[in-house]
Amino acid sequence: MNVITNNTYIMDCHQHILDDFIFAFLEHEKEVVKGTFSAFDTVYAPMLREEGVNFVNLVVGGDHVVQVLYSASNLRFWDAHKKIDALLTELESGCSSFVICRSSEDIDRVVEEGLIGLFLSLEGGIPLQGKPNLNLLSSLRSFYRMGLRSLQLTGNGRNRLGDGVAQERTQGRLTTFGRQVVEEADRLGILLDTAQLSDNGFYHLMELTNRPVVDSHCGCLAISDFPGNISDERIARIASSGGVVGISFRAANIAMHKDWPTAEDLINQINHAVSIAGVDHVGLGPDFSAFLTPVDRVRERGYSNLGPEDTQFNRLTPVQSEKFPGWVDGVWNGVRKSDFVDGYGAHGEFPGITGLLLTNGYNLEQIGKILGGNMIRVYRDSL
Amino acid sequence: MYDDSQTNERSGTNKLVPFQSESQRTQGSIPRPLGRNGATCVAPGPGLALGYDTFHSEFSRSVMISDRAKSLNRQSLTIDIHNHMMFEFAIRQQAYGEKDIFDTVFAPRLQTGGINVIATSVGSNSPCLCNLTDDLVLGSLEQIDMLRIEEQSSKCMAICCSVDDIIAAAGQDKAAVLLAFEGARAMEGLSGEDSMVLLRTFYRLGLRINCIVGAARTMFADGMGEAGADAGLTTYGVKLVKEMNKIGMLIDLTHMNDRSFFDVMEVSDKPVIVSHVGVQAVCDNPNNLSDEQVLAMGKNGGVICMEIVKIEVDRDAYLKGESIDFNRVVDHIDHIVQLIGPDHVGLGLDFDNFTHVNNIHRAMCPAPGSIEGYYTGIPEGDHMLNEPKNDSEAYVIAEYLVKRGYSDADILKILGGNLLRVLGETIW
Asked: Residue B365 is nearest to which of A134, A174, A329, comparing CB atoms?
């Protein structure tokens, strides 16, 4: 029995857009525009089919340099537009296998027609920042018109909206611009994602909004002492807002001090989140990275240190971690054999989660909620 | 309002004026700044369009300078640690194509005012500080370059990187110019990398004073515009402060929010300054220092520097349109001296009422009157004190301190001695 295919909503709550897709898009851009080639269908769709998901919260830009194509510049705004443009151009040129979900009707259409639904998301607000002395909400509205429906205020570090978990020492709340962005996101119907936001920023955000908020990819701090993980209090607060906590499959989130965490560590995290938040408020945000993730690569290469010989693709993205192995914007992730839980490190391994949940006492209804029902509920509330 | 329109003659009258002979200079009653060892300084000649007479005739109607104050001005190595001449300098050089701008426009003002040392902002948080570009690194480099080129031909200025340089400049009767930043945003570099490269590069170009924030957020710390976020120093900010301690750059905490301010006090093992500010006990402006901050400055061994911007000297009187003179600033000084003694007061006039840029607040982005996105309003009329109106009248400060009963030793400290001490401890 393949439970996954019997569920209405299977959602990956946090995935980075594939460099492989962008690379194929740029390589074949003229054909894509003419409608004779689809990079999405060729590269992306097969991988998502393999993952078994019909909805993806897709990160199209954000604070970390891994978001930036071509060079390690500060051009986050440009980069996010480039990625969204690639998706929109595919649609305009006739690709009909996915939908950029902007409304509840789009969600229905994805299910009825068996398509893939993408919710566009920013992992940090640097792309919204203006010129040195000028932060305007026009950038947020512009992204919204292009399809953005989910927003993290920060990555791990500081930006002009707030401080991420790497900057807990500042004890800072949100800035004026951060507050303005929260209000405007609420007005527009952009889901607020509190992943990587510092504690003071998180509680400030919760004061400002009455809508459900989510944490798309995290772990429970009670189990794994990793700065990106969140306290039980924070989990409960998200649940009481009606939101969802997305459990990441990354090793650092799941078991910071283990070299290669196992399925047992993963289910411990999920169980703990369910025990605090309730089964209606837990989802899955594996955080598969911007490129194919080999399960078994040599340790010496360091965190996310993948070259063409690993991915079999010419990777466009310079990874900050190649300069600073093990670090992501001020947070130590460690250098491991794999960045992910053993057995849950790549798109094709995602479906295994169903069996894991089944053998750990979750019933089909609960599994349906965790796999995607909860997150889709929040999106329907939000849009 | 101060009017130096006579200097704005673009048809060749901006030639460098020959310096007066010793006898010519000693004949006048100009309160003339002198070299540290008492050598007379270069003063503007009578042919110079911007003569002191303009100021002095008007000014002398209200204040008589005592012989004691004149003597103190002669003895003092007076330091203005927050000067904004680049607002005007860049426009004169680039838009009007003027030459010898420092020697013909700024040196006479400083000489008349009795100022020997200035720290001038060459960047960097907003376009108005960066030669009107929002490429902050380029704008800062352009302004440093302008001054470096000016220095080559100037007879009146020397860009100084150490106390030895300052003393050498004073000995040659030149104005000592220190390069400073108002906001460190141009040093931020690539997001997430926390690099010290730009800090050290600007240091090598001569930058010796770095005000870490302006109004808004930097990756290091927040300005008062972000007081609501109540954030302290970031990890990058901690790194910056430690590196500045190490390489020898003076930390300036003006505009910084409270939590970051006290964080720097903990992290820095060198004295710091607040280059242009007042105290909240006298003028309840959130930009001014609380008593707690003043005490922390005393403990740190730093210097709190007084400005002549009305809204931070006496907000209420300013909003009522009343006249305010340096007496009110002396109230601020009294308060600081009561709390932490006379070793922690200096001058940072923050004068920015020039001819072409007579109100920089109108040129600010995104809208006139807003600084780095925070609306602070366009100052009505002349937002500088009525006395002294500008840097060329700074020689009256000694008189106000004399009248308030300060000793000669304390006045000399306030005019420059304290800042020179801290410069010696921080930039060597």
From this structure: A134
Comparing CA positions, the residue from B11, B8, B44 lying closest to residue B25 is B44
Domain map of chain A by residue range? 11-382
| Separation of alpha carbons A164 and B212, rounded Å | 21
| Distance in angstroms (rounded) separating the CA atoms of residues A373 and A355 | 17
Q: Coil, strand or helix: which one is B276?
A: strand
Chain A, window 318-347: residues with a beta carbon less than 8 angstroms from a chain B beta carbon: 320, 323-324, 329-330
Residue B320, judged by CB atoms within 10 A of its CB (0-12, 13-18, 19+), counts as: exposed
Range with the lowest mean pLDDT among A319-328, B40-49, B116-125, B252-261?
B40-49
Give the mean pLDDT of chain B: 85
Beta carbons within 8 Å of A108's beta carbon, 6+ residues apart? none
| Interface with B, mutate which of A67, A76, A170, A207 (most B CBs under 10 A) | A170
Considering the segment(s) B34-426 as one domain, its CATH architecture is: Alpha-Beta Barrel (3.20)
pLDDT at residue number B56: 42
A298 CB burial (10 A radius; 0-12, 13-18, 19+):
exposed
Query: Which ipTM did the prediction report?
Result: 0.85
Q: Is the pLDDT of residue B120 over 80?
A: yes
Q: With beta carbons less than 8 A apart as the criterion, state whether A63 and A329 touch.
A: yes
How far apart are the C-alpha atoms of A149 and A188, rounded to whole Å?
A: 9
pTM summary value = 0.86
DSSP secondary structure letters along A39-67: HIIIIIHHHHHHHT-SEEEEEEEESSGGG
- Say how many CA atoms lie within 13 Å of A24 toward its Cβ: 18
- B193 vs A contacts (CB less than 8 Å): 320, 323-324
* Separation of alpha carbons A324 and A335, rounded Å: 11
Domain ranges of chain B: 34-426
- Kindly state the DSSP code that residue A346 receives in the 8-state scheme: S
Please tell me the CATH code under which domain A11-382 is placed. Answer: 3.20.20.140
**Cβ(B415)–Cβ(B396) under 8 Å?**
no
A227 closest CA partner among A304, A123, A156: A156
pLDDT tops 50 at residue A103? yes
Q: Which of A81-85, B11-15, B40-44, B310-314 has the lowest mean pLDDT?
A: B11-15
Contacts of A76 in chain B (CB under 8 A): 191
CA–CA min distance B118, chain A (Å): 27
Statement: residue A329 has pLDDT above 90: no
* Parallel, antiparallel or unpaired: strands A148-152 and A245-247: unpaired
Distance between CA atoms of B261 and B288, rounded to whole angstroms? 12
Cα–Cα distance measured from residue B152 to residue B208, given in angstroms and rounded to the nearest whole number:
20
